[in-house]
Amino acid sequence: MVAGRAARRTGRARRTGRAPRPRRARPRPRPRVPGGVTGVRSPGRHAEGEPGVEDVVAEVIRQWRAIHPGLDTAPLAVIGRITRCAALLQQAEEGPLSREGLVRAEFDVLTALRRLGPGVTPTRLARETFSSGAAVTKRVRRLQERGLVERRPDERDRRVQHLALTEDGRVLIDRIMPDQVGYESALLSGLPEERRDELAGALAELLVVLEGRLGGLIG
């Protein structure tokens, strides 16, 4: 069949005196990149230091460069991607936390109380979870209503509250912690182990910098 089509094209070319046009090659499918996102590697379209994988943030950066050519978009490449990753993780509707009716912020409270043990003050809990005092109060109230957290006034100063997990709270966190770690491991499975180690190290450095500059503003 292919030979027949080629012969017909050659015959038409002889009658018209024109050479047959070459067939167009089919475009290759875009490769799959870590995380299941379709992307293309095009070093010529990225500024030096930017990753070669297309994502939403890369498009945002190009748009801002078109609007404001003199704008330094390097911070967007880092902060923009961290912010989007955090938003995706916060909005995830599947996983152990959602099945237990918990959100990430409440899970962080429970894990902090499990790690620190009984007698934690709301102020200490706010520092541990990088949250405001008002946010911690609201989360503790919801968890207390579920019977997972309890408050006890200080014996010497009843204005001071001490927080602890109830027995139900301890059982819950011990049960779902392995499942949650396994779920998070699955989310990172698209990255090779060495890349995960590199990313963890880079994020640790950034965290130290941000804690030194912004840590005092939270609480």
TrEMBL record:
What the entry lists under Pfam families is as follows: MarR_2
Q: Which domain of life is it from?
A: Bacteria
Q: Biased-composition ranges for Low complexity?
A: 33-42
Compositional bias, Basic residues, is annotated for 1-31
SUPFAM superfamilies for the chain: Winged helix' DNA-binding domain
List each copy of the HTH marR-type domain by range.
72-208
The family database entries (InterPro entries) matched by this protein are listed as: HTH_MarR-typ, MarR/SlyA-like, WH-like_DNA-bd_sf, WH_DNA-bd_sf
In alphabetical order, the GO MF annotations are: DNA-binding transcription factor activity
Question: Which SMART domains would you find in this protein's record?
Answer: HTH_MARR
Annotated region Disordered: the residues are 1-52
Q: Which GO terms describe its biological process?
A: response to stress
- Which Gene3D superfamilies does the entry mention? Winged helix-like DNA-binding domain superfamily/Winged helix DNA-binding domain
Q: Which PANTHER family match?
A: TRANSCRIPTIONAL REGULATOR, MARR FAMILY (PTHR33164), TRANSCRIPTIONAL REGULATORY PROTEIN (PTHR33164:SF104)
- This one is known as MarR family transcriptional regulator
